[in-house]
Design brief:
Blueprint: E1 4-6, H1 26-33, E2 37-39, H2 61-65, H3 67-87, E3 90-95, H4 101-116, E4 120-125, H5 130-142, E5 147-150, H6 159-167, E6 172-175, E7 186-190, H7 192-203, E8 213-219, H8 225-243, E9 247-254, H9 260-274, E10 280-283, H10 286-298, E11 306-307, H11 314-322, E12 328-330, H12 333-348, E13 357-360, E14 365-371, E15 374-376, H13 382-386
Parallel strand pairs: 3-4, 3-5, 5-6, 6-7, 7-14, 8-9, 8-10, 10-11
Antiparallel strand pairs: 1-2, 12-15, 13-14
Helix pairs in contact: 4-12, 5-6, 7-8, 9-10
The structure holds beta-D-glucopyranose.
Length: 397
């Protein structure tokens, strides 16, 4: 990528080495290497925070005589710098993680659209560490970015970083995950409750009807507001059936930081506690589904128990074709990332783009946009994920 500069030490992705790695395309390998890169194609826009401090007493007399002219020149330069900043905004993009394949795609497509619109993006990724993400955002604020786009690791921990952005008058857009109790300007995401409904809604008609079905539930990171919304969507469908005794939840737990290895441990614990007689495992995303399926594989249960997911990760689509995962939820990421880039650029230029909805985050009704999601199984994988260009048919084998 032209004009790309590394600013931090690369941090390895924390998939446990023991996990089955999906087939990696060259694009994925490149994306992994570029974990902590900054895109710097702006010139004037980034000059102001870095102007050197000069002592005028050290100026030669001839220069001092030119003071009024220099003053005028400085004014013109400042005016053009301000203009440059408006026309070529600098966007700070703070990501929780690049662990899941999706965030690499979100980042790359966001940058491409922002650059097309004349903006520059400075990217930071916090490796699922709240302290580090708050520091990342504060460093973006001190670099005087024009707008911040944040995927919070923890929707509550990010509140104080947003306060610093508010003080610096930098608008904030929450991307994919909500930031709670904070004065943010926009929330752009998918319909997360619908994701949960799609997962449970897929499983229910496929469960045995002649006896209570036995299911395991593996939720996402408890620090991620979305994980609660996915569960809420699942509850909407499962709740009445659990109450009616038609579904029995034999084990449930939250996978800390969405780590596949944590999901694997939960699945191991479920089999130990409830035995092998299981009908389905409702897992909230593809990364953790991979961990659960590895545990099922060790018990000879993979392919015999329905497993859900989300994100249409390449490895998950491969598992769907192989029959070890039943479904995923496809979220057209490019649609969201391009929308976010357009809104970020408009907001940076002082605009107030229209939102289609609002969501209360504890502090205000946040102007929000919810993109639609698509449940995917082996029957519509080609007509959705592949037809959309999200994955190539050849890569799915
Ligand atoms: C996102 C999912 C993702 C998960 C783990 C959630 O907030 O909405 O798409 O799989 O985080 O990163």
């Amino acid at each position: 990528m032209p004009g790309v500069q590394q600013v931090e030490h690369p941090v390895r992705q924390h998939h446990a080495a023991t996990f089955l790695e999906p087939a990696r395309t060259p694009r994925h390998r490149r994306a992994e290497r570029e974990e902590f890169w900054v895109v710097e194609c702006h010139a004037l826009a980034s000059l102001d925070p870095r102007l050197p401090v000069v002592n005028p007493a050290s100026f030669p007399r001839r220069v001092m005589n030119l003071r009024p002219a220099l003053f005028l020149l400085a004014l013109t330069a400042l005016a053009s710098a301000a203009f440059a900043s408006r026309e070529k905004p600098v966007i700070g993009l703070s990501l929780d993680t690049l662990k899941e394949e999706r965030w690499q795609r979100d980042r790359d497509t966001f940058i491409a659209e922002a650059q097309r619109l004349g903006a520059t993006v400075i990217v930071q990724s916090a490796n699922s560490d709240d302290t580090r993400q708050v520091r990342d955002v504060e460093s973006l604020i001190s670099r005087k970015v024009d707008v911040l786009v944040i995927v919070p690791h923890n929707g509550s921990a990010m509140t104080r970083a947003v306060k610093s952005a508010n003080d610096a008058k930098i608008p904030v857009i929450a991307y994919d995950r909500l930031i709670l109790n904070a004065q943010i300007d926009y929330y752009l995401t998918f319909d997360n409750v619908k994701v949960g409904e799609a997962q449970a809604g897929y499983i229910v008609p496929r469960l045995p009807k002649d006896r209570p079905a036995r299911i395991v539930r593996i939720y996402g990171a408890p620090t991620d507001n979305n994980a609660k919304l996915f569960k809420q969507g699942q509850d909407n469908i499962l709740g009445p059936l659990i109450k009616a005794g038609k579904i029995q939840v034999v084990h449930e737990d939250w996978a800390l930081d969405w780590k596949p290895e944590n999901a694997k441990k939960i699945m191991n614990a479920a089999v130990t506690k409830a035995g092998r007689n299981l009908d389905a495992v409702i897992v909230s995303n593809d990364g953790t589904a991979g961990g659960a399926i590895q545990a099922l594989q060790e018990d000879g249960l993979a392919g015999k128990v329905l497993v859900t997911g989300q994100d249409a990760d390449l490895a998950a689509c491969q598992r769907i074709l192989r029959g070890t995962q039943a479904m995923t939820v496809y979220k057209p990421l490019t649609k969201l990332s391009h929308l976010a880039a357009r809104i970020a650029v408009e907001v940076a230029k002082g605009g107030k783009p229209a939102a289609t909805s609002t969501l209360h985050n504890g502090a205000k009704d946040v102007p929000s946009i919810f993109e639609a999601v698509i449940p995917v199984d082996k029957d519509n994988l080609l007509s959705t994920v592949v037809a959309d260009g999200f994955h190539k048919a050849a890569d799915l084998k």
